[in-house]
Structures are given as structure tokens and as C-alpha cells.
Amino acid sequence: MATQGGAACRIFDGAEPSAGAVTDPVVAAISAYLVAMEDFRRNAPDDDAGSDAYALATYRRPLKVLERWRRPAETRIGAVAALRLASDAETDGAYELVGPMLRAGLAYFDK
Cα separations (Å) of 4 from 42, 87, 91? Predict the structure, then answer.
């Protein structure tokens, strides 16, 4: 998964996004995903059935939102966060995030 420990700090360059940046929908979506993944990583049961159920209750919905993302980032912080998440996703084998996050990040810079 694209969110091993410390991912939120790396994705947002060592700090939580500012209030203005959080109005960027991609920042809000990435933040929701990272929070849910951290919850899963820390609290998921060890057994497969419990882990699958906990995944459904935590990160799978925010993950689907990002996989289906079709909008450009609206802020530089959002664009960079999307590109960093795409990079992490590619490294971690979460390829379903790479395209949508690359497009969201690059679209901001293409305006």
C-alpha cells in the first residue's frame, strides 16, 4: 500500500496542509486516505477475515475515491501531494493510484 509509516509527513512535505490547501478537494481526499491507512496499519486485526473487514471499514472507500479521481489539483500543495502519492504508489505497487494522481498533479501545472 502507498502509505507506510510517515507517509502523511512526506506527502505533505513534513507538515499538515494549511487550512487554505485543505479546501483543495484532492488534498482532502489524500488526507482522508492517509488517515484511514494509518488507522488500518496500527489497528487492523492479525487474522485475514478481521483484517479484510477492517480494511473495508477504514481505507478502502477513500482509496476508491482516489482511484476514480478525475479533477486537477487546485493548489500547488495539492498538486505536489498528488505527485508524491503517485510516486509512493508506484514504488509500493499500488498502481491503480498512479494514473489518477499523476493527472491531478500535472493538470495543476499545465494551467
Answer: 11, 13, 11
- pTM of the predicted model, to two decimals? 0.84
Cα(101)–Cα(78) distance, rounded to whole angstroms?
10
pLDDT tens, 47-100? Answer: 999 999 999 999 999 999 999 999 999 999 999 999 999 999 999 999 999 999
